[in-house]
Design a protein that fits this description.
single chain, 149 residues, alpha+beta, 6-stranded mixed beta sheet, 6 helices
Length: 149
């Protein structure tokens, strides 16, 4: 059974390990941090009213994370799963559960080569990929998808 719950300080190390996974790192827009930097970032996340960090558990086992960043009019979503849970078609169900945590339009920023995520978000009801990306992302060739609530 898939369950999403709010992240806690006890999740710090597992979240950091997930972030440092080479396959996941390749899909991020920045380099994997050292543990001390990750800890600082996590404290900022916990203090923020604009970021929701959810832990994905499958049958009570840590399986990944979902992050929702409130950007006033929209929410940006990202999802990362541990190696054991990738490729089993679970992403769409996880995304749909995460969408229950917001009533705003949701955007997923996904690198063009991340076929698994593109398929996951398409199965979750996200619309067409658009080439209109922010200046920050434009130079690394990323794309985004939108899903209206």
């Amino acid at each position: 059974m898939i369950k999403l719950r709010s992240a806690t300080v006890q999740d710090e190390y597992k979240l950091w390990q997930l972030r440092c996974d080479p396959e996941i790192d390749a899909q991020f827009f920045g380099e994997a941090p050292e543990l001390v930097e990750h800890r600082k970032w996590l404290m900022v996340v916990f203090a923020s009213r604009k970021i929701t960090l959810l832990i994905v558990e499958i049958d009570g086992i840590f399986a990944g994370q979902v992050r929702l960043d409130d950007k006033d009019d929209t929410v940006t979503i990202s999802i990362s799963l541990t190696l054991e849970y990738r490729g089993h078609g679970l992403g769409s169900e996880i995304v749909l559960k995460a969408l229950e945590h917001t009533d705003k339009d949701v955007i997923a920023l996904i690198k063009r080569g991340n076929i698994a995520s593109l398929k996951t978000f398409a199965r979750s009801g996200f619309g067409a990929i658009t080439e209109e990306v922010s200046d920050k992302l434009e130079d690394i060739g990323d794309c985004c998808e939108e899903r209206e609530q």
